[in-house]
Amino acid sequence: MIANGLFFPDLAKVLFWEQSHSLVEGPRIWDDFRARGGKVGLMFWQQSMGEAADLIVTPAPIHKHSGGMIQSCYSQPPGLEQYLTEQIGRKFNLMNYWGPLANHKSSDWIVDAICASVRSRQYSPDILFTYVPHLDYDLQRYGPQSPQANKALDVLLGYLSRIKAACAEAGWDWLFVGDYAIEQVTRAAVFPNRALREAGLFATRDIAGMDYTDFFTSRAFAVVDHQVANVHCRDKDSRTAAAEVLANLPGVAEVLDRPAQNARSVASKRAGDLIIVAERGAWFAYPWFEKKRAPDYATHVDIHNKPGYDPCELFFGWPPLSVSFDTTKINGAHGRVGEGYEVAWSSSLNFETEPADVLDLSRRVQSWMSNRA
Q1: What is the DSSP letter of 314?
Q2: Which single residue of 116, 172, 262, 313 could bond 167 by disulfide (Cβ 3.0 to 4.6 Å)?
Q3: Which H/E stretch holds residue 40?
Q4: Collapsing DSSP states into helix, strand and coil, what is residue 218?
Q5: What tens digit of pLDDT does each residue of 196-224 get?
Q6: CA Rg, the chain, in Å?
Q7: Alpha carbon 290 to chain centroid distance?
Q8: What 3-state DSSP class applies to 27?
Q9: Can you give the pTM of this predicted structure?
Q10: CA-CA distance, 362 to 373, in Å (whole number)?
């Protein structure tokens, strides 16, 4: 899975935050475990719909044509959501999972659900993959060195203690691992699509005074995702031109063509013709427009229509009930890897040697599962 958002050439459309399991390429580390009879659970695992697993819970709200939405989770078996809601005493609230109201209450529900599943006779798998989200919010809003980030970490440690206690009670092992390292933003946001548009590579449509994308005629555009962006180009000449524009854009550290992607082991059939990486302390903002010509979705929490990740959705803007358009509010970003960007992990499992990285850690878990079921 090369990004949270992908460009689909046959649709000429960018889709972000889709949940189908087929977006993840390759075998799963639990395949052999499950083939031998082990039960696998996925709880708030983003690309889990349709996955070969025995227990699945993931947010799946219904957006009403008249406005608003019906709060709901997709679950397998179908009765699992109702069971968890009854055990917890409330439904999962998507407003706490993303947007200006995103906070630790989303993690509250998920941790309650984890503990309820571990202790359940009917809905307890043999191995459970899950995600506790709230550290993301205030680290991006205020930065990793902020008092708000320290408070969010304290809250997390309380959750992990609860999960460890539930595991001990059920005789489970546990492993906690960070998703990625978030660093302090120290530079102004970088706008690759503005640079591509100014170079005549990114095409737009004027709709009632608003600048909407035209991916059918664009020669190059960037699908931005925090500190990384996949740049899709029409042909060789467009790729050469886009690479030159982006290499000279302040805040861009690297421009990786296909050979460079192969050398870095980040190549994928869904990757851009170019991948750009932000400089330390910088991040990529998706807009190609100025606020006065912004598409309708720009000032709303609209994760599926925006063709790029927008952390400004974590803040309210003006007018009331809209989200911020101010990129200077963002103080934390992630996506860069390497020295200084290692993730934290802790486990009750005893590894003979220290895992080299997250991929190595996943292989250790796969090996551990091979001795189970």
Answers
A1: G
A2: 172
A3: strand 40-43
A4: coil
A5: 999 999 999 999 999 999 999 999 999 99
A6: 21
A7: 26
A8: coil
A9: 0.94
A10: 18
